[in-house]
Fold each of these.
Amino acid sequence: ALTLLVIACPGALVIATPVASVTGIGRAARDGVLLKGGEPLESLARVRTVAFDKTGTLTRGRPAVREIITPAGAYAQFRGDGTPAAPLPEAVSEALALAARAEAGSEHPIAAAIRTAAGELAGKRPEEFEAVAGGGARALIGGREVLIGSAAFLQASGVELSVPAEESLRDLRSRGRTVSGVAADGRLLAWFGLADEVRPHARDAIAGLRAAGVRQIVMLTGDHRATGEAVATELGLDAVHAELLPEDKSDLVADLARSSTVAMVGDGVNDAPALARADVGIAMGAAGTRAALGTAPGALRGDDLRTLPEAIRLAQRTLNVVRQNLVIALGTVALLVAGVLAGEVHMAGGMLVHQASVLLVIVNALRLARRPQSRPAPTPVTARSSEAAVQ
């Protein structure tokens, strides 16, 4: 009876899952993906739908002003680094200076692009500033209410668009520009056409996700549909959901989660609700905001999206190892109990086999610490990006 009680204690079963999960989480961290526990790792292995934010996630998140058009037809073109290609018309210069001052207190990538384009034209901070999630910003400058943001935000705030202004807006969008407008006292002053580069390894990451078993890859963006579709076509995404507010992104992620396990990848404050709603939220570590990093149970330590499909494959391998460990643990206990009942297994021999099964489970889990030789290592993570992820 004593032998039966000792032999039937499933020591290997107790550690079968934790040792594999800890090893998998450690391997993922070395590969550039930080996971807050075993549950995100398990969910990641079952992901069949991935939703990406656009700006700062699929793109570099460093848009540059390329064109400025006023309703009266004044036009200015900018170089790739966001600096003017020629002296600015007076109307463009005034609109740019006002926009740069209105965005002086904003951390949004578009705000940084406008300040870069303005250069010395940018003035001191406004008297009042209010960021509107998913729309733009309001500022009070010299007693004037200044609005800057998307066309939908401006119209919802009471700014009327003239026929020339609407034509300019359509023209910019047709060229795949992200468009932001500035208005003062209810009157549109100018449209800003911005361009952002797709991340260099985004296409490889999309192909890697499909190879890892992801069936649907979609984009969720607050930009206009034409802008989003230009990026989606370049990367080969399955669907684009455009002109979304933060709550819209969250609702769409919830809808997708009803039919499959969903991972949401984002970087900004606008993505935080969707990151929290997804089965697995993944924040961009180096480029992500504090809100995104604090909400998501996972984070990429750098900006290389290729680490995401690697993490999914690792999670799948981890679940396979957990299943193997459970078979080893339960199979060993079943055989030992049967041997004890048959009178063929005694305390010393039974304990030897029992401890051997525990060691076998540990060794099996430690295989996860090695990278499969057929796959190259992701781009090394810099100290700077690691520090950003930790913060």
Amino acid sequence: LGLELRARGEAEGSSEFEITGIPDASVRWADLQLPHGQVLELIEYVEPPGTPSRPRTNDPGATHISLRVADIDATYGRLREANVSVRSEPVTITSPGAWNGARAFYAADPDGVTVELIQPAAPAGG
């Protein structure tokens, strides 16, 4: 998705992961740089391993993350070529409101977490 890798590593029994309530965890992590100074932290628990959760998008507790992209069609094509599970082709949002005219689709990460990719509508007159 063109996100810059800020840092990555492994940690075992690290105090920074005590906040999870899982003591002595062994994890692999990566920080991806997002626009405007934001960071997306990805964490994989090596020990203790978790149980995969595969909720449908309408199940209570299901979650997703949304990332803006500059070219929804190119992003869709790259993900399809990489055999990423997508839930639809890009769809144009026609509902009134801030996202009217935006184009988006849902994909699933390797753990089944829903990732929404969205290209905002072009500004009026542009």
